[in-house]
Amino acid sequence: MKKIEAIIRPEQIEDVKEALRPLNLNGISITQIMGSGCQRGWKEFIRGTEVDINFLPKIKVELVVADSHAEEIIRIIMETAQTGEIGDGKIFISEISDAIRIRTGERGDAAID
Questions:
Q1: What is the CATH number of the domain that holds 31?
Q2: Which residues of 68-79 are buried (b: 16+ CB within 10 A; e: fewer)?
């Protein structure tokens, strides 16, 4: 099993969700986060004082999937979230050794299907 964590632009989330819908994934988590990468933020004047806004709003999409589906999901996220501009985000892939569905006690791939 693989855990896929994608950090993407907030305006891309609906397109990514729609592109993943045909795969009938059982579990997807979405979190609003703030982050800083190559974009570096911007400067604003607040009450006459210049302030660096270093963290920008992003969306974190997390999925745990069978190894056989991971590359397809990664491809879909990359193609859908990519604008070609700095700040498109990153995808992180981790190995998951086991998963357990609490309700039934199912383990492994059965727990994520």
A1: 3.30.70.120
A2: ebbeebbeebee
- What are the distances in angstroms from CA 104 to CA 25, 97, 98, 112? 19, 19, 15, 12
Number of compact structural domains in the chain: 1
- pLDDT, tens only, 66-102: 999 999 999 999 999 999 998 899 999 999 999 999 9
pTM of the model: 0.84
Residue 24 CB contacts under 8 Å (≥ 6 apart), including other chains:
none
Which residue in 92, 91, 93, 89 sits closest to 12, CA to CA? Answer: 89
- Say how many residues make up the chain: 113
End-to-end CA distance of the chain: 11
User: If we measure between CA atoms, which residue out of 53, 45, 39, 42 comes closest to residue 7?
Assistant: 39
The range of the structural domain enclosing residue 89 comes to: 2-112
CA 36: distance to chain centroid?
A: 15
